Amino acid sequence: MTQLSLSNVGVSFGATDLLHDVTVTIAAGDKWGMVGRNGTGKTTLFRLMTGALEPTTGQVSRASGVRVSLLEQHRDFGDATTVWEAAAGEFAELLALEQSLSEQAIALGADASEAALARYGRDLERFEHDGGYTIAPRVDTVLHGLGFDPADARTRPLAALSGGERGRLGLARQLVVAGDVLLLDEPTNHLDLETTQWLEQYLQDTTSTVVVISHDRAFLAAVADHVLHVENGTATPYTGGYAAFVTQYAERRLTQQRAADRQRRVVDKEQDYIRRNIAGQNSRQAKGRRKRLERLPRLSPPPSADGTMAVAFDVRERGGDQVLEARDARIAIEGRTLVRDLGAFIMRGDRVGLIGPNGAGKSTLLETIVGRRDTAAGELRLGGSISAAYYRQDLAQVPLGKSLYDIINDLRPLWTRGQIQGHLGRFGFSGDEVLRRADTLSGGELARVALAMIMLSGANLLIFDEPTNHLDVESIEALEDAVERYPGTVLLVSHDRALLRALATRVWVLHEQRITTFDGSFAEWEVVSAERAHAATVAAAEDESLRRVREHRRTERAAPDANRERNTLRTARRAATAAEDAVTAAESTVATLAAALEDPALYTTADGVARSAELGATLERARRTLDAALEAWTAATEQLEHLTAERTP
What we know:
The N and C termini lie far apart (65 Å). The strands form four sheets. The chain has a six-stranded mixed beta sheet with strand order 5-6-7-3-8-9, with helices on both faces. The protein has a six-stranded mixed beta sheet with strand order 14-15-16-12-17-18, with helices on both faces. It has five domains: 1-67 and 179-240, 3-Layer(aba) Sandwich (Rossmann fold); 82-162, no CATH class; 259-295; 322-520, P-loop containing nucleotide triphosphate hydrolases (Rossmann fold, 3-Layer(aba) Sandwich), CATH 3.40.50; 525-646. By secondary structure, the chain is α/β, with parallel strands linked by helices. It is globular, with a radius of gyration of 32 Å. The protein has helices at residues 42-50, 83-88, 92-107, 114-129, 132-145, 150-153, 163-177, 193-205, 217-223, 242-277, 283-295, 362-369, 404-411, 417-425, 443-455, 473-485, 497-503, 522-558, 567-598, 608-646, and strands at residues 2-13, 16-27, 31-35, 57-62, 68-71, 181-185, 209-213, 226-231, 234-239, 322-333, 336-347, 351-355, 377-382, 388-391, 461-465, 489-493, 506-511, 514-518.
């Protein structure tokens, strides 16, 4: 069933045409990824879908009764005062009713009049009818998945949240309300790896239709089954996931370029004939060809890459072989320890990916490395002749009170005006745009200015803190290529798995105040991490099995124990005991293997990946042995209980 459709839609603002000839049909259950350069009209398309904006031309249709829910980049939580209230969103009235029911139940102890009972009954019926019993678990589940403590969220003031936390809370609010069509605008910007993966799974499992604007290629590849590419003033739909879109788009550009080239050759040939014959013997034929040429619809070549950054990093000085060394370093802020007992190093040419949950201290560690903060204990220092350039997540390195021209001029005072404009042009700023003040720029434009500044640093150590947050896909790929070619050393904090897979040759994992180093690529670390997650899943399943065992034991102890002397009963008890011993032995084996897989030290060795795979296979076999032992034990205890019950007077 079609839920949303745009037919030949165009949007104009005055004499400026932003979009034209946009046609797309979105069916129930579809998962659409919307991609395109910043400023091409993606957010405008969202406004058309919600009805907040009417098209200048064409038609937008929404199926009757379809609820469209939009997560914008700027969040408003209304009158909510706590994190939990903000996440509950429009269900606040129902939650207030829940509180009222609790108060009424207490009051009934003192006043059980007919009127009080009738009011309680009416409110309880309304609460049940509106799904009240499902709301609190839904809010708790979403908050937990997005990195909040549900219990703490009930009292935590909304005003105490950081910008990133407000972003995650806005996403939680939208997922709790869950319209028929979810429109998500850059939902992964403030998520770490774990919460991004949770969101992926949530969107894969939801029955709602999803349209997501995102620059996260791995996220799009996991979620989208259709892609809408916004380019050159229009939008082109593609069937298939993100990988299929990349292939189809390349083929489409090639076909478009070939067709345009063929037509250009025909036009050039005709124009040559017209020039040679317009005043000669064949003037009549030349004039006829000119008229036909004027009426010929011209094919456009594919859009050029003029708007893509042309970024390149180089080093002014080679620097020493040891770029960074940490010895028993402790990183703390306002008395709270973020990293303890850090002993690690980075060598020249390394590209280290630093990962960990939001709020764990990654940015604070980077600030300590570049000398903006002091260590609370131990030593953390850069090697000899090491110069670092630092890309801050908040982009505070860009002086907001200056024009773009002055920013670059301050860094290169001997450059001519043409050189400064040429450098800014590499990052998409041309003409009078170089005179714009930095405080008038969007997030994506500020990010490009920050990269333009770093490009002039000549540093032999580049430190990036979430560099992809404000960049479009094409700019991210340009940055990725530039870092790949860079001859220096890189320390990268990012939640962009595609970027980490392409660049990180070593991984630092920050977890519970400690950093574990993994001497392998990020892709290899993902394999190992999956093994650990599998071990945790197996352990959880075994915990459930153990609970069943303990419950059976309680049942066994509670069963009547008469006629113990009978041989059949004695034999049954021996069988149950032997089966229980087998379960205990299998439990011990599973626990030992799971603990080995969960030990971070396993993955720091050269053969850690192979060893973890071997342990994972052994764990699977042990789990099957335990399952068989549990089945045998259950059968034995059931037989014992049956015999006991038969002999009970």
